[in-house]
Design a protein that fits this description.
By secondary structure, this protein is mainly beta. The protein is built from no helices and 40 strands. A hairpin with a 2-residue loop joins β36 and β37.
């Protein structure tokens, strides 16, 4: 059993804000702006060879990789790790560490260090390596003439040493120097928070966490040089957890390595239970640096893989149309049950939607306005069939209530507020952030960009909103404050003029950092404060939102929350 826990600060995101010489997009990492010089492929003979230490697989397409057969005693390596990845003559594996699941297959489950590694050729065109550690089975698959490492991870219980499942590629930085800037630690000189958020000499912050993107927005992640790229292309993430808007670390660059991570599940900002007994498929693609396209894994059906379900064992849902949408927002339909998750975009013109390749079963179907759930229904999926869903109207959009005034919009995101565009790629203390201490917000003249996206008890825990009422508007009113997540039990408490609301209960949120590690995604929660008409006046009224909590903390680790929207409506 290994005695050293190696916590690699790896991460999975597409190359978005690249270093000088690179570019990116929300769909995934972009290649360097300089067009890669094409290298002649080093073509070998496809097949599997075995020696006392390694299984060696030659793809016959310039990629030769080795899987370690036995433990060599190093705490940073394990049986079952990728020990070498040579593409067109260049080594893309750190020899001192493994490319591996979690921190190695011998460190998945408490008290279980035994790992078995087997390999076989299947027909003339495939090689399969099977690694078993405790209740987890991992596959490496090679296909003749294809410079890819196809993979699948299947587990029946959650690995207990780290309580997560992730695959980490560790590639020498000199081989692939270009990756997302927000998670590039080169040049950092100090620690800002918790040993995983760092600062440059000018105060700008960098972290593995700031490589994150919404899961639905990326298909691949990776790093590049001027001549090559190594990418991980994800599958449909049916065995993951967190849904379409889940954000988590993706990339990290250090002075030693590029770390590219595919996360199946991860404890940070997790809002739902983990899923088991699914084959989680993903593929490492080697090429000239061009962003990769979709990967075809249909041949998996002939390889006897645990948890694999082919097209014949799957079904679909087709919706005739969703009405009642606000067309300034994109809509997503998500499906989930204890065993699987899926999502699909809603057509912006007529509201129809279609989700294919789903495992049979009963699902909760949620409609999201941007990231806010605005409708929930049930649907049953049957293998080999498409379940029709009749047109329906959205039933639970809080923005449907006519407001006397509204700051922002209820859409599950604080993006429209002060610092909203920077929340996912830098620490709140970063000098590129505007000051979190804002002046009074005046309805009619202030804009959402002047209202703080986040509030912390020890930073900006008191926000003032001024508004006017006419005589005809003096009636019982409700002040609503929507939040998208909270830290340390932070929640809003309201005061209007001299009236003070009771203390509301804390919302159910992930038990981890969120606001400082690049995600505002938690459980959307609405707080409603009913104001008696007797407490309101004709002319100027003043509302205050303060942060309360039974927990403590300092500055940006004090109790806080992310703002979705704030409004005033007539009490229903």
């Amino acid at each position: 059993m290994r005695t050293t826990l190696i916590r690699s600060a790896t991460a999975l995101v597409a190359l978005s804000a690249m270093m000088a010489g690179c570019g990116g997009s929300d769909a995934g990492p972009a290649a360097p702006q300089q067009k890669p010089a094409m290298l002649a492929a080093v073509v070998g003979s496809f097949g599997l060879t075995t020696d006392a230490t390694f299984y060696t697989i030659d793809t016959g397409a310039g990629l030769v990789f080795k899987i370690r057969r036995f433990d060599d005693g190093a705490s940073t390596r394990s049986a079952g790790d990728i020990a070498s990845m040579v593409y067109n003559g260049v080594q893309y594996q750190d020899p001192s560490r493994g490319t591996q699941v979690n921190s190695g297959f011998d460190f998945l489950y408490t008290g279980v260090s035994a790992v078995t590694v087997t390999a076989e050729s299947i027909g003339h065109d495939y090689v399969k390596v099977t690694v078993k550690g405790g209740n987890l089975t991992h596959y490496y698959i090679a296909k003749r003439g294809d410079p890819k490492i196809y993979m699948g991870t299947y587990f029946t219980t959650e690995p207990s040493t780290l309580n997560l499942v992730r695959f980490i590629a560790r590639i020498p930085i000199n081989a692939l120097p270009f990756s997302p800037q927000p998670s590039d630690l080169r040049g950092t000189t100090g620690t800002v928070e918790s040993g995983d958020i760092f600062s440059l000499p000018n105060g700008e912050t960098r972290s593995k966490h700031y490589s994150n993107m919404r899961l639905k927005d990326w298909k691949y992640i990776g790093a590049t040089s001027n001549t090559a790229g190594v990418w991980i292309v994800r599958d449909n993430q049916e065995g993951g957890s967190g849904g379409p808007f889940y954000r988590s670390l993706l990339n990290q660059a250090t002075s030693t390595n590029q770390e590219i991570t595919y996360i199946v599940n991860y404890g940070e900002a997790q809002t739902e239970a983990y899923r088991f007994n699914r084959l989680n498929a993903y593929t490492m693609v080697f090429n000239d640096g061009t962003p990769p396209g979709a990967v075809d894994t249909s041949f998996f059906g002939s390889l006897d893989l645990l948890g694999y379900v082919g097209p014949a064992g799957r079904g679909a849902v087709a919706g005739g149309g969703i009405s009642g949408r606000n067309t300034t927002h994109a809509y997503t339909v998500g499906f989930s049950n204890a065993g699987a998750q899926y999502w699909t975009d809603v057509d912006p013109v007529d509201g129809h939607f279609s989700s294919t390749g789903m495992l049979p079963g009963d699902y909760t179907m949620k409609v999201y306005k941007n990231e806010l759930e605005v409708d929930t229904r049930s649907v049953k999926v049957t293998a080999g069939a498409t379940t029709p869903f009749a047109p329906f109207a959205i039933a639970a959009d809080p923005s449907a209530a006519p407001p006397l005034w509204r700051i922002g919009d209820f859409d599950g995101s604080p993006a429209e507020f002060l610092n909203g565009a920077k929340l996912t790629t830098m620490h709140p203390s970063d000098p590129r952030m505007s000051s979190w201490l804002t002046g009074d917000y005046t309805i009619g003249s202030s804009t959402p960009a002047q209202f703080p996206a986040y509030q912390w008890k020890s930073v900006n825990g008191f926000v003032t909103i001024k508004f006017n009422l006419r005589k005809s508007q003096i009636a019982p009113l409700t002040l609503r404050a929507g939040i998208t997540t909270a830290f340390a039990g932070g929640r809003p408490k309201a005061q209007v003029n001299g009236w003070v609301s009771p203390n509301p209960a804390a919302s159910a949120q992930p038990n981890s950092r969120t606001l400082t590690v690049g995600t505002y995604r938690g459980n959307n929660t609405m707080y409603s404060f009913n104001i008696p008409a007797s407490e309101l006046v004709v002319g100027e009224n003043v509302a205050y939102l303060s942060v309360i909590s039974g927990s403590s903390g300092t500055t940006f680790l004090s109790p806080g929350y992310a703002v979705d929207a704030v409004d005033l409506i007539r009490t229903p």
